[in-house]
Amino acid sequence: WVNVQSSLFTTTAAGRITYVGQRDLKGPVDISLGLTSAGGGAITVKFYIFKNGVVVLASGLDAAISGSVAANVSQPWQLTFAENDYIEIFIENQTNTTNIIADHATFRVL
Question: At a CB cut-off of 8 Å and minimum separation 6, what does 47 contact?
Fold first, then answer.
């Protein structure tokens, strides 16, 4: 992950985004991913937003991907942040043990 611009948030190279504002803040979280299967075959994946290390189950989104063409998937969401809350994205292979490649990703908060 590369932080392009931030205000009231800090980011890590691993993709964790932490709110550092002093007042609670409710706002949008937009995620856009390009995913492919490392093994080349078709698989089903699911990605989730995690807040403070806990999955936001309702944020889960299924996508069918393969190794030949990146599937572009996106998810708009909304969360309320308190100081030091952090969010992350996790992607789960629901078909087999083939690795998943995120060839591009945008994670926009507010």
Answer: 31, 33, 60, 61, 63, 73, 75, 89, 90, 91, 92
How many whole angstroms separate alpha carbon 65 and alpha carbon 58? Answer: 21
How far is CA 46 from its chain centroid?
10
| Cα within 13 Å of Cα(97), Cβ side | 0
d(CA 86, CA 21): 12
- Cα gap 37→64, rounded to integer Å: 10
Q: What is the pTM of this model?
A: 0.87
- What are the pLDDT digits (tens) for 39-56? 888 899 999 999 999 999
Residue 20, classed as helix, strand or coil, is coil
